[in-house]
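Can't paste images in this forum, so I'm doing it all in text. The chain is below; anyone willing to post the predicted structure tokens underneath?
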Amino acid sequence: MKTSNKLLVALACILVIGMTSFTILLKAEYKNKVAKIDISKQVIKLKPFNNLELISLEDYNNINVEIEEGTEYSIKNVPNAKVVGESLKIDSSSEIYGKIIITVPKLPAITLNGYEISVKINGKSTKFANSNLAVNSTATGDLTLNNCDLTAVNIKADNAEVKEHWRDDWDRYYHFHLNDSKVANSDISLKGKSTLSLKKTALLSPTFDLSDSASITIEGNAMNPFVKK
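Text version of the structure:
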């Protein structure tokens, strides 16, 4: 066989080996991604916790959480989630696959710190009855409470520490939306331009500490405690 033919055969062998190796690597990477997706979809049971810490220190790592009423403590879309002591902590180092879904029989105390943290709390048949909601925020974003019947709500929203000076003033604070709910006692402190909206929500015995720039929007029967009879 001529030298040139030998070289062509050698090159062909190298190409075949290279393409085979590349195909094997692609298949392995695909299987790895599929495995991660499967893991992310699994519901992970957690031991009971009383505190939920949500920390987003990078503007591009927004956290989106939905808290649902259930009989057990569980989490979905955070495969490495773990309760330490009495706290479940989720931050920028956590493996997060989209919206975080947390199931709890009673509401934990919630601490928020950082950028764009969105929390939605959904009561179901028993509406988180006899639960207390305590929120301490130094974050930007919003919290929405739907269909709950709570013993107490304690909210403290302080100024968020954000670095981007281009942010609009309104976006630098946290905003609360209470819908179709009932609260026996409430103590609400809003700093800066933080806001609270009440829609079909009765605050039976409210206490407020508001900055000059904070605002409250009231709709429907939420106005009853504020109207003299």
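The longest strand covers residues 132-146. The chain has one helix and 16 strands.
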